[in-house]
Design goal:
It is a single chain. Strands 1-9-8-3-4-5 form a six-stranded mixed sheet, with no helix packed on it. Strands 12, 13, 16, 17 and 18 form a five-stranded antiparallel sheet that branches. A hairpin with a 4-residue loop joins strand 6 and strand 7. Among the domains are: 119 residues, Immunoglobulin-like, CATH 2.60.40.10; 104 residues, Immunoglobulin-like, CATH 2.60.40.10. The protein is of the alpha+beta class. The chain is 29% helix and 34% strand. The relative contact order is 0.09. It contains three helices and 18 strands. The protein is elongated, with a radius of gyration of 57 Å. This is T-lymphocyte activation antigen CD86. It is found in: Cell membrane. Homodimer. Interacts with MARCH8. Interacts (via cytoplasmic domain) with PHB1 and PHB2; the interactions increases after priming with CD40. Interacts with CD28.
């Protein structure tokens, strides 16, 4: 046999085995949470077969059908309900698009292409794919969970949410002018029961007496499987920060004393004013009473004068008249 023919036969058999054996190396596919995954089935239609001659479908590792194209027409009867309305077929690229990807969608998928002949269907192409679902964690954020504790510690926590898969590591970097310290604390994690996404956090207490120079703290999250690192915004600690020094209560004490005195003096001043007003009011009434009494005495005096004028008899009256006449006569004589 011609060696060239033998070589060509081996190549043909290799290609057939690669594509038809279910144990062939699967394609690695990655998709992001809530986005779209492309499940390829790169069939080379070298025979120019019509779609009306082919049966094409995808299924998952549990043999549930995602999509079926039967002799050129979509056939939803065999499609599992959890994939209904979530797929679309790209005819040109022989790719099935799975929309609204969830964590539970990750796993193995297979596409099959059969050539339907009068005597039955013949498998002419098969492709295996492994789908991995990713969700980007939020940027780590450092938050001070409490104020200065007795002027000794700064308590910090760093958190990142809504990511997948579970991250590999979370840590703090403490940088000063002279050194960088790596702090690997215990990473706390929780997983949402519905979305299966992870929330992670880590805590740190910084001893303030040990902070002798400016310190910069950064939180770092190492994710899998991309092996990327997410960095938080820097958190600064200044040993000269006023909040690290003992609080000055002088102003507060002064204000408290002033308020206490004001509260104590105001009622006293009000009482004094009230007493003064009370004293003035009786004085005015006494004066009015005095005026009334004087007026009454005056009237009584007038009455007494009238009452005590002695009544004179006719003889006394005549005597007085005569006396007056004599006196007036004397004046006339003197005048002439």
């Amino acid at each position: 046999m011609d060696p060239r023919c033998t070589m060509g036969l081996w190549r043909f058999l290799f290609v057939v085995v690669f594509f038809l054996l279910p144990d062939a190396v699967p394609l690695k596919i990655k998709a992001y949470f809530n986005e779209t995954a492309d499940l390829p089935c790169p069939f080379t239609n070298s025979q120019n077969l019509s779609m009306s001659e082919l049966v094409v479908f995808w299924q998952n590792q549990e043999m549930s059908v995602l999509y079926e194209l039967y002799l050129g027409k979509e056939k939803p009867d065999n499609v599992n309900r959890k994939y209904m309305g979530r797929t679309s077929f790209d005819w040109e690229n022989w790719t099935l698009r799975l929309h609204n990807i969830q964590i539970k969608d990750q796993g193995s998928y297979q596409c099959f292409i059969h050539h339907k002949k009068p005597k039955g269907m013949i498998l002419i192409y098969q492709m295996n794919s492994d789908l991995s679902v990713l969700a980007n964690f939020s940027q780590p954020e450092i938050i001070e969970i409490s104020n200065v504790t007795e002027n000794l510690y700064r308590n910090l926590t760093c958190s990142s949410i809504q990511g997948y898969p579970e991250p590999k590591k979370m840590s703090f970097w403490l940088k000063t002018e002279n050194s960088t310290t790596l702090y690997d604390g215990v990473m706390q994690k929780s997983q949402d029961n519905v979305t299966e996404l992870y929330n992670v956090s880590i805590s740190l207490s910084v001893s303030l007496p040990d902070v002798t120079s400016n310190m910069t703290i950064i939180c770092v999250l190492q994710t899998e499987p991309m092996k990327t690192e997410l960095f938080s915004s820097p958190f600064y600690i200044d040993p000269k920060d006023p909040q690290l020094e003992p609080p000055d209560y002088t102003v507060g004490i002064a204000i408290a004393i002033t308020l206490t005195l004001a509260i104590g003096i105001l009622p006293i001043l009000g009482y004094i004013r009230w007493r003064k007003k009370k004293k003035k009011q009786p004085g005015i009434s006494n004066e009015r009473e005095t005026i009334k009494m004087e007026r009454g005495e005056s009237e009584q005096t007038k009455k007494r004068v009238k009452m005590h004028v002695p009544e004179r008899s006719d003889e006394e009256f005549q005597y007085v008249v005569n006396s007056l006449e004599i006196t007036s006569g004397d004046k006339s004589a003197t005048h002439f």
